[in-house]
């Protein structure tokens, strides 16, 4: 056996990870695992995804996983936290504008698995649902501040504030499912949905 072949095996005769895999900096390795876990969880959901599935997706051993994460639930929480922080950074402006939706679409396009995991899978998982609720509640607060001066009736303003974030999130998910059509015009289309909600909430029915 050549020296190069010997170097590619461990003492037990089992093929080792390639040198580049072993030498990956800790932060980069952690990010690699998070990305792989996001894909695996989005494909099958939390309960149906094992650590073996994630290790296989990442191209590492379970031992490597445990060097970075305490458990499957810890890994899942880190995946969700990473996506929430990405979305918060993308929509950090306190004012709701077309740019807010555009940045949300950009973040979803950058990590479609993470977006769908957060708002499709996690919303159905009581143990982790608070992550979805946290971002949605933030959206409601922003919408409430933005719409208060636009919709005279307070009750209908509250209705719109609750509906707008839900409609935008579902709109982004549907956009991802459809293959991300018209990336340049997608934000404008979603803004038309928002405008329709505002118009409906602002209707004056006193003359009917």
TrEMBL record:
GO annotation terms (biological process): negative regulation of DNA-templated transcription
UniProt xrefs under PROSITE patterns: HTH_TETR_2
HTH tetR-type domain boundaries: 27-87
Keyword Transport belongs to the record: no
InterPro entries: Homeodomain-like_sf, HTH-type_TetR-like_transc_reg, HTH_TetR
UniProt keyword list: DNA-binding, Transcription, Transcription regulation
Source superkingdom: Bacteria
Composition bias, Polar residues: 1-12
A GO term, aspect molecular function: DNA-binding transcription factor activity
DNA-binding region residue numbers: 50-69
Region entry Disordered, spans: 1-26
PANTHER family, per database record: HTH-TYPE TRANSCRIPTIONAL REGULATOR BETI, HTH-TYPE TRANSCRIPTIONAL REGULATOR RUTR
Protein's recorded name: AcrR family transcriptional regulator
Organism in which the protein naturally occurs: Hoyosella altamirensis
């Amino acid at each position: 056996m050549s020296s190069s072949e010997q170097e590619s095996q461990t003492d037990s005769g089992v093929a080792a990870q390639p040198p580049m895999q072993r030498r990956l900096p800790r932060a980069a390795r952690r990010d690699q695992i998070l990305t792989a876990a996001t894909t695996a969880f989005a494909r099958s959901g939390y309960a149906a995804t094992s650590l073996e599935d994630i290790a296989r997706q990442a191209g590492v051993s379970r031992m490597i996983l445990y060097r970075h994460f305490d458990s499957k639930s810890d890994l899942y929480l880190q995946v969700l936290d990473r996506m929430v922080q990405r979305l918060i950074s993308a929509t950090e402006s306190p004012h709701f504008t077309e740019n807010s939706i555009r940045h949300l679409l950009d973040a979803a396009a950058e990590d479609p698995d993470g977006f769908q995991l957060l708002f499709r899978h996690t919303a159905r998982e009581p143990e982790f649902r608070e992550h979805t609720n946290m971002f949605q509640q933030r959206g409601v607060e922003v919408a409430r501040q933005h719409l208060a001066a636009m919709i005279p009736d307070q009750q209908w303003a509250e209705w719109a504030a609750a509906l707008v974030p839900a409609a935008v999130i579902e709109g982004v998910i549907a956009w991802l499912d459809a293959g991300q059509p018209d990336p340049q015009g997608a934000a404008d289309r979603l803004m038309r949905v928002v405008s329709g909600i505002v118009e409906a909430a602002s209707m004056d029915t006193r003359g009917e």
